[in-house]
Specification:
two-stranded parallel sheet; alpha/beta; 383 residues; 6-stranded mixed sheet; globular; 10 strands
């Protein structure tokens, strides 16, 4: 269970050093603990937002993380009491997860034509994955990427890599004191990871552990300094991710071909972030035109799909409009004062752009709405 370590006997804030303290140990233990007590379970099962009139629920881009699917199911059912039609598929990063009759995953891959990492949402009727040994092997390799990146991230700060740190400091406007404090925090975390390497859950080894650990040190650092450290470390992470070798990943086409061989569906998420992918003629079912961090080009993307569909040849399936809530359920297990508040506000199936009047006009022209996309995409997955 993610709970704050008890604040008694805290060291003097001015004395924060790279040395691991008893407080650091308690903080680390709380962050890697994936169990939920009765209070936390009840909080997960009880939705923050209820949509009493929404009768169609499309949710094909969300991350259960370590939260039990049974609790998530309770939350979804309580969120949409009038739901009559739904398509709900989890998309854990590089890990197949099943919900009802469907299984999904969000994969990291390499688009060679654009020389950049992109992501795909893959969805399957679960029964079609009986012979998915090749796909599972590809995902196992890719899944290790996020763990290796955490250690690269920490090493960049602790070794240190002066070129990367200088770039991150410049981008974030951070001074030497902030960089030094970030290094002290990362040295603590690196030592804790090494100390508990054989006993901690594998899924806890991810970049967000750095953010959550620094947030847990706020009683020592104070909010002002903690915020500045977080801004700097966010830039370090961006530099590390940008410089990660793309040759590590399988190509986009390789994942698409494997998904199609298994009768799966393919959706492009975050096209605003991966905009060159719009120029490719990938064999996909549609594009995500909206999610909480990609809203700027929603109307434009709907128009692009409409034009693609208008020009499609005989027998070609039309491109579907998708919207993703990109909910990370692990954020909801953190203390209210902790975590990423923007992510914590997301809810599975909550995509208000479907009901926006201006966007709605584009959707009418494109002949798209939630219910129709659910019907068409489910039919493809079931066929």
């Amino acid at each position: 269970m993610h709970s704050d370590p008890q604040p008694e006997h805290l060291p003097d804030p001015a004395g924060v050093t790279p040395d691991v303290t008893e407080y650091d140990e308690r903080l680390f233990a709380s962050l890697i603990d994936t169990s939920l007590d009765a209070e936390a379970a009840a909080r997960i099962a009880t939705p923050a937002v209820v949509m009493p009139a929404q009768d169609s629920v499309l949710a094909v881009h969300w991350h259960p993380e370590h939260v039990p699917l049974a609790l998530i199911k309770q939350r979804i059912e309580a969120s949409y009491p009038a739901a009559r039609k739904s398509l709900i598929i989890p998309t854990q990063h590089n890990e197949l997860m099943e919900y009802g009759p469907y299984t999904g995953v969000e994969v990291d891959c390499y688009s060679r034509g654009f020389n950049q990492k992109v992501q795909l949402l893959l969805h399957f009727r679960t029964q079609k994955l009986a012979n998915a040994a090749v796909l599972k092997s590809m995902l196992a390799h890719t899944h290790a990427y996020r763990q290796s990146q955490l250690f690269d991230y920490l090493a960049t700060v602790t070794k240190p890599d002066e070129e990367r740190l200088s770039l991150a400091a410049k981008e974030s406007g951070s001074d030497e004191a902030v960089v030094a404090m970030a290094r002290a925090c990362c040295l603590k975390l690196a030592a804790l990871l090494e100390r508990h390497a054989g006993s901690m859950p594998v899924d806890a080894i991810k970049n967000k552990l750095v953010r959550n650990f620094v947030d847990g040190l706020r009683p020592l650092l104070g909010n002002a300094l903690a915020n500045r450290v977080q801004v700097f470390l966010k830039e370090v992470k961006a530099v590390v991710k940008a410089q990660f070798p793309l040759t590590y990943f399988y190509r986009t086409t390789e994942f698409i071909e494997e998904a199609r061989a298994l009768g799966g569906g393919v959706v492009i998420p975050h096209p605003e972030q991966f905009w060159p992918i719009l120029l490719a003629s990938y064999d996909v079912d549609g594009y995500e035109v909206w999610n909480p961090q990609s809203q700027r080009y929603t109307e434009f993307l709907i128009s692009v799909l409409y034009e693609k569909n208008r020009r499609r040849g005989n027998g070609e399936r039309r491109m579907l409009v998708f919207m993703g809530d990109d909910t990370h359920m692990g954020e909801k297990t953190l203390a209210v004062s902790n975590g990423d508040s923007s992510k914590a506000r997301r809810e599975i199936g909550l995509q208000p752009a479907w009901d926006d009047l201006v966007i709605g006009k584009k959707l009418i022209v494109a002949d798209m709405d939630r219910a129709r996309v659910i019907e068409e995409y489910a039919a493809r997955l079931d066929s």
